[in-house]
Amino acid sequence: MDEHIVILIIALVVLLYGYISKALSRLNISGPMMFTGFGLLLSPFGFNITQVEVNAEFVTIIVEIALVLVLFVDAALLDLKLLKQSWKIPARLLFIGLPITIIAGTYVATLIFPGEPLTYLILLALLLAPTDAALGKAVVTDLKVPKMIRSSINVESGLNDGIVFPIVLTVVAMISSGLTQAEDNSWVGYVFEQIIFGALVGGAVGYLGTKLIIKSVKHNLMASNYQNLIPIALAILSFYLAESLSGNGFIAAFFAGLYAGNTCESTRKHIEDFADTEGELLVLVSFFLFGLVFVPITLPYINFEVVLYAFLSLTVLRMLPVMISLIGAKLDLSTMFFIAWFGPRGIASILYVLIVVHEMGSIEGFETIYAVVTVTVLMSILAHGLTAQPFANRYAKSHRADS
């Protein structure tokens, strides 16, 4: 019965927010801020209108589909020609900045939480490594910001969660089997397999599926309203097909979108239309469930150390590795700072935690880890939501949107 109440509440929240969304945006109050707030208000922490278990299947499914579609859409709206010309910044962020972030995050965690097992702290660093462009939407969609910068931030957020995900699963497997350290290097092959097969499957599904759309439209076989639906079906197909073929479904969704959006301009436009409506709804519902379901169960475990690590995760542990990775990239300091700041934590971190809860069966023993993720995401929703548009406006004043 609770699940039906949640669905009704979601409908009411969408209505309420929809009526005043434009007015709220002028106050730099974002959708994720509002929906997380509504979730908290209606949770046991607030009016206690409904209770839903954190490992409820429908919660995981909604967040999982939301992430798949976010990755697909973000990739589809990337300009592949521009990416070929300016791949160096995303490469630096992913292959220099990301590893430094994980290593630094683990080391600092050992200092702040000395009583926790090392594998738990590695898991914590991994859970907070992926970024979420949805929380800085104003940055990646504002045409005043140079396209190369928007593209770099988008590519980073699109690929880092897929890269981190197989490592998360490996660490979870180590913890569940009682290992405290890797006994061999088999996980390296596993990660490589997940990335390669995910990219290949996703690229094939996106490219071939879009070519079929072009042929179908050319021969007048497809009703126009299905041009919005088929790309989304391709996103979900790529995810599940990759998972069944030893690939990573999230990487597959990203590459499916990348090829779909760059194979046909018309398809990209239809994907953009979906992102502005149905896709946005799924993202906001995910944040509502985060506030309603996950935050209340971790609140009792929040303390000074948890808040301190969350703060460092969003600032020093994110920004310093990014700044280091961009040394020599011929960017001015303000651009390096701009990219470094917009590393929000959101849907990917939430989904990863849900997966860990599902694998472990409960939150017992991981209370501190989950509390840190909760506080970090809450801080990010607020901090990046409030600063996205003002920072984008300020940055655009001194940097021409000519690329």
Automatic annotation (TrEMBL):
Regions crossing the membrane: 6-25, 32-52, 58-80, 92-113, 119-140, 161-181, 187-208, 229-261, 281-299, 306-329, 335-357, 369-387
GO molecular function: antiporter activity
Signal peptide range: none
Protein name: Sodium/proton antiporter, CPA1 family
Keyword Transmembrane helix appears in the UniProt entry: yes
GO CC term (a single one): plasma membrane
InterPro entries xrefs: Cation/H_exchanger_TM
Keyword Membrane: yes
Domain Cation/H+ exchanger transmembrane: 14-393
Top-level division of the source organism's lineage: Bacteria
A matching Pfam family: Na_H_Exchanger
Keywords: Antiport, Ion transport, Membrane, Transmembrane, Transmembrane helix, Transport
One of the GO biological process terms: proton transmembrane transport
Compartment list: Cell membrane
UniProt membrane topology term: Multi-pass membrane protein
